[in-house]
Structure to design on (256 residues):
């Protein structure tokens, strides 16, 4: 092990001098030196980077391993790969300090990404959304409506099916469940075509997708089918549901 490498390790031990921050795990002339640096990225998350410095270091880059109590195995592997790629392009001189800084930067980026994903999942799980769908046709009425009712129950969605010149479905519930409802519409054979063959609802359109406002949150209960004969009757349904604003947004997409 070169004097420069030993000096670098000594400097690092002085920088990371807090309790449990820096550890020498192994040191021998044959196998080189193994050091570990620990850092915290939160009250319940601890990350560690371990460097194995071979006797030829820094002529050859160190081996690196990452562990964490808060990150997934995939995230740890991604951080490790970034550090290995970084070490491969650095000049063959003591590089641990640079790699530790890169490690801390990667930890912060991963933490921010994870928190952003957690916030998104939480908002989709908790926040109620309202979506209005336009269907192309319903020929096999009993089968089609039966599936819509079954899916709404399975996915804990409230809905209103409006049958008239335009076929509309209003849904309320968790956003991810509404997305699954729409996915099933386009991938499951729910109806029959003009020749009587079973078909999927490929022509379904999403007319509106918004977080439910306080004026019409929880305005739907169960899954109800309504028939309407005129635009005025359709307007009345939306007004009954306190969704006049929603109706004004979807009206330009309707026929007649």
């Amino acid at each position: 092990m070169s004097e420069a490498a030993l000096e670098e390790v000594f400097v690092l031990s002085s920088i990371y001098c807090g309790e449990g921050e820096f550890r020498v795990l192994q040191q021998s002339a044959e196998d080189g030196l193994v050091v570990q640096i620990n850092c915290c990225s939160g009250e319940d998350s601890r990350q560690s980077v371990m460097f194995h410095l071979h006797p030829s270091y820094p002529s050859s880059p160190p081996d690196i391993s990452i562990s964490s109590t808060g990150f997934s195995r995939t995230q740890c592997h991604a951080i490790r790969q970034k550090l290995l790629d970084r070490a491969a392009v650095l000049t063959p001189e003591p590089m641990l300090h640079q790699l530790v800084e890169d490690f801390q930067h990667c930890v912060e980026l991963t933490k921010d990404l994870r928190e952003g994903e957690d916030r998104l999942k939480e908002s989709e799980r908790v926040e109620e959304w309202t979506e209005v769908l336009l269907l192309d046709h319903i020929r096999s009425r009993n089968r089609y409506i039966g599936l819509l009712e079954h899916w709404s129950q399975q996915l804990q969605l409230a809905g209103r099916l409006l049958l008239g010149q335009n076929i509309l479905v209003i849904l309320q519930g968790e956003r991810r469940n509404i997305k699954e409802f729409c996915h099933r519409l386009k991938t499951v054979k729910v109806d029959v075509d003009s020749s009587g063959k079973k078909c999927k609802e490929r022509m379904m359109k999403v007319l509106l997708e918004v977080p439910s406002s306080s004026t019409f949150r929880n305005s739907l209960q169960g899954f109800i089918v309504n028939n309407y004969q005129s635009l005025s009757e359709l307007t009345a349904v939306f007004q009954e549901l306190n969704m006049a604003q929603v109706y004004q947004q979807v009206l330009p997409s309707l026929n007649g």
